[in-house]
Design goal:
This protein has one domain: Coproporphyrinogen III oxidase, aerobic (oxygen-dependent coproporphyrinogen oxidase), CATH 3.40.1500. The chain is built from 15 helices and eleven strands. The longest helix has 24 residues. It is globular and about 65 Å long.
Length: 452
Amino acid sequence: MASIIRCSVKRRCLLSRLKNLPGAGDSPLPSSPSRCVSLTWLPSPRWSSRGAGVRFMSHGTAGGSSAGGTRRGAVALGGAAALTAAAAVAGFLANANHFQRAEMATSVSPALAKEEKEQEGDILERCRGFMSPPVTDISVLQQMKGEMRTRMEMLIMETQADFCRALEEVDGGTFKVDRWDRKEGGGGISCVMQDGKVFEKAGVNVSVVFGNLTEEAAKQMRSRGKVLKGKDGKLPFCAMGVSSVIHPKNPHIPTVHFNYRYFEIEEEDGNKQWWFGGGTDLTPVYINKEDAFHFHNTLKEACDKHHSQYYTDFKKWCDRYFYIRHRGETRGIGGIFFDDLDSPSQEEAFSFVKSCARTVVPCYLPIVYKHLSDSFTDEEKDWQQVRRGRYVEFNLVYDRGVKFGLATPGSRIESILMSLPLTARWEYMHEPAKGTQEAEMLEVLKNPKEWV
């Protein structure tokens, strides 16, 4: 992981789409031209220095005796696509049955907060390491450097770049970078790698959207305990996040998903409500206790920096959320999940989200490297396809973001379905034989374990 694959992006001038972001008493206005910023987009050494701290585990026993990878009976499901505005907003809005309110009980020390702000550094310099210029024009980000929406956009762009560089390093492939615009305001940057050497489908997407909430969205938010008072029936909002789903080819390398997001809304009196949400979870095809411990312990260490109860609470929340009710099993072995994080201060909540976002490389890449050369049989590949079928079932039947996006007029369906695997399989009345590794996996999914 010492070298970094260069990613060149054309020099470009960006329109100042967010120059008139909704502030107190304002409403979104059409974008207007602003000063152009020319950059040569080169990877920053930031990722390399942080990556040096990743802990690598020793290789375990190979899961199969013969090399293989035949995708018999595979069903093509989705194309290489990215989040659209509908899908992005959905993750923030469609959460009517949330389980608990995220509370923060401890404070970040002033010294730590100051150090973190200093580490955020110069906007222009940090942008050089991104996969693409940010969604918001750089000149606007520089003018609004101290505002949370700017700091969060820089964090999600950084998270996207760090994870993509790490995945490119192990796969040898290159992400396709796709920028999209939302006519109502904002846009996104989708990075997709398909049919790579290691990853069958990998997507890492950023979205930054703004505008006015619909009545349906506002109603859903009110059902979550949010008391929102709009002006002339309108509620200006700004929503942003980074989301990723990785589907490897080798059944001994788990699928991983993460999402970290920020939502800000302005009420009639000019006051703003804000909150964070997100999480990271792992979906293995076969149980490996060492992998499970590493993944969960990395998340726990990040949580423990902020509150001793965070990991316990958010791990339970994750198990409850990623649950396939009609199957009576969880989607995977969980991780952490939280929403409506809005206390005790914005600075402390952001610090926690930053800690979580910076675990995505160290909690997953050591597992990938560990199983990179594991052999596998056709039967193991078939079991992976069956488990992917369960992944699809959860996303289409229960995932709030996907359901909301599919119900939103004008949505880009390809983008909403980015999280689905390239191939999957459904077998009628499939039941693994007792005493097999497949049966062991199913038992864990029906009875979630404490891995740390």
